[in-house]
Amino acid sequence: MAAFLYRMGRLAFRRRWTVALVWAAVLAAVGLAGMTAPEAEEEPFSMPGIESQEAFDLMEERFPGAAADGATARVVFVSPNGEKVTASENKEAVEAAIAELGDGTQVASTVDPYESGAVSEDGSTAYTTVTYKVDAAGLTDASRSHLDESLEHARDSGLTVEAGGDAMEDMGGPSGTAEAIGVSVAAVVLLITFGSLAAAGLPLLTALIGVGISLFAITALAGPLGLADSTSTVAIMLGLAVGIDYALFIVSRYREERAKGRTAQEAVALATGTAGSAVVFAGLTVVIALAGLSVVGIPMLTEMGLGAAGAVVIGVLIALTLVPALLGFWPNAILTRKDRKARRAGGAPRETRKVNGGTRWASFVLRRPLPVLLAAVAGLGALALPMTDLQLGMPGDEAMSTETTQRRAYDALAEGFGPGFNGPLTVVVDARDADDPKAAAETVSGRIGGTEGVVSVSPAQFNESGDTAVFSVVPTTAPTGQETKDLVNTIRGDRPGIESEAGATFEVTGTTAMNIDVSEKVQSALVPYLLVVVGLAVILLLVVFRSILVPLKAAAGFLLSVLAALGAVVVVFQQGHGADLLGVETTGPIMSLMPIFLVGIVFGLAMDYEVFLVSRMREAYVHGERPAQAVTSGFQHSARVVVAAALIMIAVFSGFIGDSDAMIKMIGFGLASAVLLDAFVVRMAIVPAVLALLGERAWWLPKWLDRILPRVDVEGEALTRPAGPEAEPAEKDLART
């Protein structure tokens, strides 16, 4: 591996114009494809294999043209100063507003609250549901403007008018603020790390090129594949973070080799052969973790995982080819000012420092490995404790800011009709085989209506064929409450008896039931996912480090960091500690997809630091240093760069905490927390402490396993000759300039 990448880096350096032009052509071609691609029609969220999805599919089949997935806006009217919405003046204003709402070109129907009984018992609140012919993504700007104008006109009458539902969702794309924050902080970190504008700018430039290619590719494929907006958001997030980090490690190793007196070409080749090998295997672990999300069976997670994995692959390829090529254009520009002055004066290059912050920290840990290990594990364990209180769900309008009309509509409905009104269940009765479909639907409706925890049941609505009925069930508790989940399980548990009595089958769906089913499916998929991803990564690290204990230690450290990160997410987003600082006004269950998505991404990133840091230790050990010396050497060469890489990732992910999308906000916080804990506690404290305690045993590998494992030479043992292949005279001259 090292020898192959050595030749690749040397070739990219010598053929730098060709490499640069090829990447420019790729960016231009993909950019053109992305800009000319038709606007993607976002596919509705689906979750194969769960009851609520099957019921939804049955509704679409039996109610053709009813736009089961059509957008809805639930408009709430609250009378002022203790008046009744049934008072003649208020009633006229409500009916006028409903008439105006129904005039929209994409509106399928509106409901009169006075005829449907959608008025609260105290007469203070009424609501109407506006149903559209298209889903939320298909609503035109004109339809959204018409809705907003109608609400404003209704407010002019003196009523309090608020609206919720997916028709009110902001369908605009990402603002780019998070990316700008991440890039700005990354630039500062790189400048401090390298002390050179060129050295700081090169990783940023190559990372942005990689992100541009990834984003345009996803945009071009979004239409044919029906990709969601979150696919590009996550690809940008990870592509930017790993793109900067991978280029950072190549550039850092290049500067190190130049400080030893290597020519520019030789230094590029050695950097690509050694640091590039670590980049390849670090990238592979990230790709495995992200592509492994497809085993969960959730289409949206699969799209996000594969899109981000593609961005990581592009980041790896750019680090191995474009970075060496750009170093060929400016071989001395990225060196420190002292080194550049020394070269211009014909003096000797500045040798790499033997003692720095990394070596001092490593020496501290090596002197006290057991106390450091116990303190780090205890700290992460304490942070992970809130995980025991983890509640999964899909927060809706109740998690939004009180400044939004959606949140105010939610609160008004909860106050006027009860907390369960915001999360009704939808029951679909398949009476095709029943002798009397109407009687069968009434039986199902009556039995479910008598279940404890049910406030009311709406009249059943039949399809044109008269063989399928749909009705709503309003619980007494809020959509995200445990009691509502228990109610859904109770109704489904009573199904055999109800179906036997009715002579028809039924299924429970609706947003609330869908969220409950998604949570249960994610929880059941988490352990198989962990086994697949961790198992594959441990095998990969076994090949890289040729050790049994190092990969197992890496996996254990990951579990500690990810559990602690999830504990931090629970503390903030579920328990509410420090929520105000992040703009989280309402706490509640953690999004169902969050744990498994966090596990996938954090595992890949954790292995990044493991490979970067421990590969230098392995390199020193293979080249003859004692285990303790190898740990110190690894920290001497890698600690500063690993810290910089971690700070950059934390900055990139933290930028997404300000996103208005609750899932992106939560993911940004979780990832930033996980990187912080993994890089600074696990890799910087637990790893050296464990290696110090294990000594020679850390690198033990059974002889039979050593014989059958492929040799990839990540540590660059094949490149240990004094100066590597002789550089051509022209390249030697270039190195002196």
What features would you describe in this structure?
The chain has 737 residues and is α+β, with helices and mostly antiparallel strands. Helices cover 63% and strands 7% of the residues. It has 25 helices and 11 strands. Strands 6, 7, 8, 9 and 10 form a 5-stranded antiparallel beta sheet that branches. It has a 4-stranded antiparallel beta sheet with strand order 2-3-1-4, sandwiched between helices. A two-stranded parallel ribbon has the order 5-11. A hairpin with a 5-residue loop joins strand 8 (461-462) and strand 9 (468-475). The longest helix has 35 residues, at 511-545.
Silhouette: elongated
Class by SSE composition: alpha+beta
Distance between the termini: 31 Å
Number of strands: 11
> Can you give the mean pLDDT?
82
- Indicate the proportion of strand residues: 5-15%
How are the secondary structure elements laid out?
Elements: H1 2-14, H2 16-36, H3 51-62, E1 72-78, H4 88-101, E2 107-109, H5 113-116, E3 125-132, H6 141-155, E4 160-164, H7 177-194, H8 197-225, H9 229-259, H10 264-291, H11 299-329, H12 337-344, H13 357-367, H14 369-384, E5 392-393, H15 405-417, E6 425-430, H16 437-449, E7 454-457, E8 461-462, E9 468-475, H17 482-493, H18 495-502, E10 505-509, H19 511-545, H20 549-574, E11 590-591, H21 594-622, H22 627-655, H23 662-694, H24 703-708, H25 729-736
Parallel strand pairs: 5-11
Antiparallel strand pairs: 1-3, 1-4, 2-3, 6-9, 6-10, 7-9, 8-9
